[in-house]
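Anyone up for a design puzzle?
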């Protein structure tokens, strides 16, 4: 993996850390704890599954992990939107995280799509 992958590792880790810091502001009664738990899980999953994808032992493993990363990025985006729409918390940090999650969804979905296309081409050549 090259410089782009290293930059994305740092970016996804920052997203996870920033999100985990942000959710501390959520209320202690429901739905705060549920949202906190789900958003912590999905945002950290973006970072750590991306790291795992970069260390994939095969192209198939990489593609599979990138699918997970794209799903978890979208889930994080969804929970951040939920916080906004539900009026749970409004802040510049929330809107920054929404923007960052939207960008990560786009990046990871495009990477996953490219990986799947490359996977199809490899299988076609073998047949």
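Challenge accepted. My sequence:
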């Amino acid at each position: 993996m090259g410089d782009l992958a290293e930059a994305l590792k740092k970016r996804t880790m920052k997203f996870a850390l920033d999100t985990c810091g942000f959710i501390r502001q959520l209320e202690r009664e429901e739905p705060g704890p549920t949202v906190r738990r789900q958003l912590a899980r999905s945002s950290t999953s973006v970072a750590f599954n991306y790291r795992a994808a970069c260390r994939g032992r095969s192209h198939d493993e990489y593609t599979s992990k990138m699918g997970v990363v794209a799903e978890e990025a979208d889930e994080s985006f969804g929970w951040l939107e939920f916080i906004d729409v539900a009026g749970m918390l409004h802040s510049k940090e929330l809107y920054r995280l929404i923007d960052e999650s939207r960008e990560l969804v786009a990046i990871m979905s495009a990477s996953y799509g490219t990986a799947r296309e490359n996977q199809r081409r490899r299988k076609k050549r073998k047949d």
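A detail worth pointing out: Residues 11 and 72 are 15 Å apart (CA to CA).
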